[in-house]
Input
Amino acid sequence: MAINRIAIGTPGEASHPEALKAALAEFISMVMFVFAGEGSGMAFSKLTDGGPTTPSGLVAAALAHALALFVAVSVGANISGGHVNPAVTFGAFVGGNITLLRAILYWIAQLLGSVVACLLLKFATGGLETSAFSLSSNVSVWNALVFEIVMTFGLVYTVYALAVDPRRGNLGTIAPIAIGFIVGANILAGGAFDGASMNPAVSFGPAVVSWYWANHWVYWVGPFIGAAIAALIYGNIFIGNNTHEQLPTTDY
Output
């Protein structure tokens, strides 16, 4: 079973040059992704003078996130795997494809990248608000939790099918754009209800900068549950026995 392949890693792995380079790649990709994604929402707010969200605004947000994630995953793929999402990293860990120590490095880099992107946006826009994720009216935390679980399941399942599965072959080349597409599609489906995060880091940055934490736990618990389910299903049923990625040991 995939869960039996979970690995903690060795102390030296956390300071290995390749692991640090991978973490830096995750940081840069996250800055790019959040700056474009969150920035598109701020641009819409400015163009509408803070007016209510419209269907065209939702489509614009979905398109901006899909395109930005496509690029962010692509530029980081050869260095870090292009996770650009703590939930994706968690799914890789649960499936035994990354060690816990390296996952922690990724999580730190991803969260910092999101915060830095939001700070840059706040400065560049002259102090406009970086809106934190929130639930729409008549949407309960349990409704939102189900949305986040299902949407993140679809995202991480796509990652496993096109980027993790060793049988992916030439399909691996379309992984970044497919990942962008599923995120964009999920935003069209869930954006009007809870913002359709699927990514704890994307929710974390705006929450820190705006200091708004209402129901923030939903945007961590939901994606992590969805990622774990996708990793266990795809890893156990479709991949079978395989080992996690191990860094070179010659330098530690």
